[in-house]
Amino acid sequence: MTDEEIMAQVLAAFQEEQAEHCQAIGDLLLEMERDPNHDQRSNLLEQLFREAHSLKGGARAAGIDPVEHVAHRMEDVFSAVRQGRLALTPEVCDPIYASISAISTMMQQIAAGQTPAIGTYQHLLDDMSALLQPQQTEETAPKPEHEAVPEPSEQRSELLVDPDRLEQAAPSDSAVEATPDRGATPDDQLLTIDPPPQVETAAERSTPPASTEEVPWETASNTVRLATTVLDDLLNETGELITCAVRSEQRASQASTLVEFASRWRRLWRQINPVLAKLQQQIPTLNPTIHHLNGRDLSTNPTQQRAEQNRGYDTMIFIAQATSLIQILHQANDLFTELDQGLGQHARAMVEDHMRLATVTDRLHDKIRRTRMLPVSTLFNPMRLQMREMARAAIKQVVLEIDDGGAEADRQVLERLREVLLHLLRNAVDHGIEATGVRHAMQKSPVGLIRLQAAVSGDYLTIAVSDDGAGLDLEVIRQQALHTGLVSETELARMSETELIDLIFLSGFSTRKTVTNLSGRGVGLDIVRSQVERMHGQVQVESKKGQGCCFTISVPLLLTSSHGLLLKVGKATYMIPIESVQRIVPVISGDVQTIEGRPALVVEGRPIVLMHLSSLLSVDDKVSQYQTGEQNTALKQNGQSWALLLGSGERQVACMVDAVLGEQELVVHRLPPPLQRLRFIAGATILADGSVIPILDLVDLLRAVMGQRHMVHLVTEPEAVQRRHRVLVADDSITTRTLEKNILEAAGYHVQLATDGLEAFEMLHRGTEEGTYELLLSDIDMPRLNGFELTQQVRSDPQLKHLPVVLVTSLDTPADRQRGIASGADAYIVKRGFDQQTLLETIAHLIE
Amino acid sequence: MTYRILVVEDSRTQAMRIQLELRRHGLEVEVANTGPNGLQAARNQHPDAVVLDVDLPELDGYAVCRALKEDPQTSHIPIVMLTRYDDAKNALAGLETGAIDYIPKDSYAEHNLIESLRQLGLL
Question: If you ran DSSP here, which 8-state letter would residue A430 be given?
Fold first, then answer.
């Protein structure tokens, strides 16, 4: 964000805050005046002081000196009263009332685009200062009410302070009148302090501001003011609840498996039962043997007699045992049958309970997520003020039309979209809308129109930023792309219009613009895209040359994903939020084609880059041959594999995985401090079995794939692999030097260091053993010879004048950038915003 | 590495100013408007640093600072206090309660805050 943008937002916040403080001061003072012996006196005084103090602090933060000064004086007065150095007499209160009125007026002037002059209010300051000096009783009643009347140049039709009323109220001798009379005047003044609805300011008081942390107060008593941390807590708890619900599902299914055991018994019983029955039938047939034994004549042989008797007994025992066994088994069967029924019922009940729990938990989770919703108007309305600034800075006539469609979205979604929208709006003003003269020549209305529209469709919020300006110039895009080396001539020839337009979202594309464009702020539209993608959304652009351009952003209303896909990659398991995945497609060996040396999957006629997730997630960004090998192995092993389509439009990737284990509830847990920012990992989730699974980050994945595409281009040229380009890094800070050296060396460059401009120049002349330097990467702030001077010297030197120069610095004003360009640098990268990717891409392009 | 800063400041304007400035430098910023909320937020979110206003309603900055330092879960978090610009004496009191730096709320406040965070290695 630029300074202007930050201050515009802070101003909008202050507009609201000051109104509250002024109101509070007025109310408190009234109360104090009504009852000089108020039992809460010291409390009220404390509060008065706080209000003035906050007013002062806020004004300072918003950079509004006049208000800050007035508030400071008020603070001093209250402080003096608190300490007993001053009595709260009417003549002390008058300037206070006048001050809060003056502050309101000043804020209105600012909202209307004017600059309040402190001179107008100087007497107020003087009066209050005078109060703080040892009292002089001939101090006449202040005349602030008169001056508080807005100046004739006031453009507003509604006056905040009614001059007539005030003139009635403030004849100079009323200062010594009794309180009741006094009471009337402040009342009137205070009534008028309530801000009337403002026609064209940014902060609309009736809508809840997105910047505050709390749901706004309404005078009806059916709303509650809550800190958002309360809601966040609730959300956390429901997250835990969901985990419990998932676990209960596991229990329920385990119970169902137990029922399985019981049914196995039934099957077993069906086999045993007939055997038992047969056995039982045979028992009586054994008996005659015994009876027979008892009744017949015993043989004469005593041994034989005994043997026969024993056999008889054995048989009897056997029969008894058999009968007993049969009974036991029947009993067991009865038990198991009961168990079976009971278990069956229990399992069914558990499943029912779980379903009810899951439904309620889902509903609860959803409702709580929605409590964080705010109207989109809170995002849009402040844009008016920003727009005015932008238009003024660009010296163009632009009007902003807003249609928020009554849409609402998660507070954080709106917050994250703010930057995105600002960038798109700035682009529209700077590059979209033509200068008034040009528009006139084209017979367009002299005032450019930019529209901000929002609509909700299902779970998605769609925001469109459209302008009636010049639209995208495809020829310029083509030239730019060639110029920056992003695409080759041949690729360019093959590109469709959509692909061409999509180039504007690449980070390399806009780097050049930072150098040549006054409005260039950083890396541009790629930030827009990555931010939106980070929110699992999409951004698309439509353009008609000469007629205008429209960027459409589509994001989920709620930031927290509720479902994810469980994936298996090799031995590891990962989770990916369901919104990140466009589709799941099967991959059969026959479908894989090789396009431009890289494997691609043809989906609906379109080739999409194909990679295996395991190669993407492994540490080094090695070349594609390795990946192809892996993929083929995977395919050979499984015959068919699955690929997830990630990303959208031109930035789509088919990511192969070893298995998709299913979809389930996703509760995202942030990683604890040491691990907060890991590449590819957006957080973690806990499965029902207690295992912790990492959640993949879509933007990182896409970036890695796209990055590799570029890397591949560089490396597939055989000479490039062997030859290491020689770069000289100049910076007086050892940390910066080392950091840059490491980055460059990791990317395969040969790096030498210089600690200041002069040393750098000498080294450039000397060159290295292998040859001259091919690029200079230099800081600006250096002793002896600074970056600008060094560049100039390089450019005027016959030997070095063609050397690519990249300036890296923390200076980010347009003036510095201009100097950078003027000195002859090829690129100017601001430290605050730069990341490795940009630096490497810039260097790569310049060296080629 | 995106560092997270918790700002405890009751004035919305000042909180917003700080939030936007810090965001501009690549930091993630959360804001709490009261002492108790600030404590809660610090305990829940474990920010990498806390920027704490001294003049908070209910529970003042010193109390919050002390509480954070006494809680083993949050005692490691560096605290930078924002003080009144004419209040050096109490600013020292802030250091005694465990703050690592104090920054007067004058026109260089944001600049000094950024420098302070830079010293902490968060920028």
Answer: I
Residue B47: the pLDDT is 93
Using CB atoms, which residue from B12, B25, B84 is nearest to A212?
B12
Are A752 and A734 within 8 A, CB to CB? no
CB within 8 Å: A233 and B41: no
Note the CATH architecture for domain A3-193.
Answer: Up-down Bundle (1.20)
Range of lowest pLDDT (A122-131, A242-251, A482-491): A482-491
Euclidean distance between the first and final Cα of chain B, in Å?
A: 10
pLDDT surpassing 60 at residue A202: no
- A-chain residues near B84 (CB < 8 A): 53
User: Please, what is the Cα angle at A268 between A266 and A272, to 5 degrees?
Assistant: 110
Residues of A in contact with B44 (CB under 8 A): 229, 232-233, 236
A726-758 per-position pLDDT tens digit: 999 999 888 788 888 888 887 788 899 999 899
At the topology level of CATH, where does B4-119 sit? Rossmann fold (3.40.50)
On whether the CB atoms of residues A823 and A493 are closer than 8 A, the answer is no
The DSSP line for A443-503 is T--SSEEEEEEEEEETTEEEEEEEESS----HHHHHHHHHHTTSS-HHHHHH--HHHHHHG
CA A679 to each of CA A652, A673, A695, A698, A703: distance values in angstroms, whole numbers, following the listed order: 19, 15, 11, 10, 11
pTM for the predicted model, two decimal places: 0.42
- A76 neighbourhood in chain B, CB within 8 Å: none
Pairing of strands A398-403, A448-457: parallel
3-state helix, strand, coil in chain B (%, to 5): 45, 20, 35
Using DSSP, state whether A90 is helix, strand or coil: helix
Residue in A67, A229, A416, A678 to test binding to B, most B beta-carbons within 10 Å: A229
**pLDDT value of position A300:** 64
- Tokens for A487? 């695409």
- Inter-chain touch A673–B106, beta carbons under 8 Å: no
Does domain A374-556 fall under CATH 1.20.1260.10? My reply is no
Q: Give the chain A residue whose CA is nearest to the CA of B82.
A: A57
Query: What's the CATH class of domain A723-847?
Result: alpha beta
Give yes or no for B11 touching A (CB within 8 A).
Answer: yes
For A54, the closest of B11, B21, B31 (CB atoms) is B11
CB contact under 8 A, B13 and A672: no
Class at the top of the CATH hierarchy for domain A563-714? mainly beta
Give the A window 545-604 contacts with B, CB below 8 Å. none
Tens-level pLDDT at each residue, chain B (123 residues): 789 999 999 998 999 999 999 999 999 999 999 999 999 999 998 999 999 999 888 888 889 999 999 999 898 999 999 988 666 667 777 777 888 888 888 888 898 999 989 888 888
Per residue in A796-808, pLDDT (tens digit) is 988 888 899 998 8
Q: What distance in Å separates the CA atoms of residue A393 and residue A709, rounded to the nearest whole number?
A: 39
Any A CB within 8 A of B69 CB: no
- Mutation test of the interface with chain A: which of B2, B3, B8, B16, choosing the one with the most A Cβ atoms within 10 A? B16
- The ranges assigned to domains in chain A are 3-193, 228-371, 374-556, 563-714, 723-847
Asked if B44 and A676 come within 8 Å (Cβ–Cβ), the reply is no
Give the pLDDT of residue B85.
Answer: 65
pLDDT at A140: 43
Q: Where are the beta strands (DSSP E) in A749-845?
A: 750-754, 775-778, 805-809, 827-830
Task: Give all strands of the β-sheet with B28-32 in edge-to-edge order.
Answer: B28-32, B4-8, B49-53, B79-83, B101-104
**Paired residues of A608 in beta bridges:** A601
CB contact under 8 A, A61 and B12: no
- A2: closest chain B residue by CA: B24
For A418, the closest chain B residue by CA position comes to B20
